[in-house]
Amino acid sequence: MSAERFTLDTNVLVYSIDRDAGARHERAASLVDEAVELDCVLTLQSLGEFFSAVTRKGKMPVRDAADQVRDWQVLFPTIAAKANTLSQAIAAVTDHSLSFWDAMLWATAREAGVKVLLSEDFQHGRDLGGVRFRNPFAGV
Q: Which of these CATH numbers, 3.40.50.1010, 2.40.50.140, 3.40.50.1820, 3.30.70.370, describes 6-134?
């Protein structure tokens, strides 16, 4: 990873606790461990999506998932969308064909000075408004 500010998408967070995910789990757990020492921020959106996904899919009990989210909020600064984030996200949907929630994640990250968004949900290597998308699971 680089010294640039980055963020982890929901899929990275979910894989980091999902021991059934094999190589993706190993990679994601390693990324989260390394991120603690670097300029990593987490979005409120990704933390909320993580909680929803792992409890809905039975990957974690509600209390454990809540504890995990709290732990990450202690370890990483949490960034959230602002009022004008919505208009930027809508423009990204219209102009760049992103899904709405991916656009919200991108716009929130961009506003916080994030330079790299780690996710398997975006086009690997693409740069949009100064934010590069990297799939940390490429080749896994």
A: 3.40.50.1010
